[in-house]
Design goal:
The chain has helices spanning about 40-60, 65, 75-85, 120, 145-150; strands at about 1-5, 10-15, 15-20, 25-30, 125-130, 135-140, 145, 155-165, 175-185, 190, 195-200, 205-220, 225, 235-240. It has about 240 residues and is α+β, with helices and mostly antiparallel strands. The radius of gyration is 25 Å and the shape is extended.
Amino acid sequence: MARIDNKKNFRGTIGNVVFRTLDGKQIVQSKAARRKQTKATKISGSEFRQCSTWAKQLRLGLGSFLVGLNDSYMYRRFAGAFYKALQTNNQLPKGERNPFNSTMGSLAGFEFNNHSPFTTYFTPPITAVLNNERKLVFTIPAFTTQTELQFPENVHKAELVLYAYSTNLGDNATIAEDYTIIPFDQNSPSQNETTWTSLPLPEGSFTLVCAKIMYYRMNTFSVKNYVNTLKLNPAVIVATFGDNG
């Protein structure tokens, strides 16, 4: 149904014709035809919605790691990256792919905060390998603290958090987690090679391996005052592990 507004312009629809006003001018358009979804389109849409659900579960599970210090579009970027990773599985048709039968390795390098990319603030490579005991073995080579770890102005202490989060992506989201914290001091010229081994990953789990830098100052009573903010919280996915890689 169409009506006339106080400026004598039509608004609304009559049959297949749409009347509207744009920049003070009367616009007349044909009503867009309703497209019939094919079976393939429905499956693809369903798969994307499922990926969005999985991505949301993971984001919520990582809540204690991220503490809300991610950029405002992270949830959209993460859902898109998750779906893109799932699409690399060319062996199974849409609708049958999931994080447990797909290699989700392209999630590695995903930045949780685009305002402070992790690789800008911490340049040494972090490797995580799953051994025969299903334990993650982390290795960081020796590096020069003053040139390969960026500190904010007037902040000279930092901690690297290595975090492994395992989930079944079901009702009981978190089924295991483990972490370690490695301290750094800007006044220490170099850092020796660091290794850390996690607890065993549960069978049938999907695991995100993450890292972030936490900056802090020490007050008079030797209490850590962390200075990370929505603009400064370098955090990244290092690797993923599931039944298929």
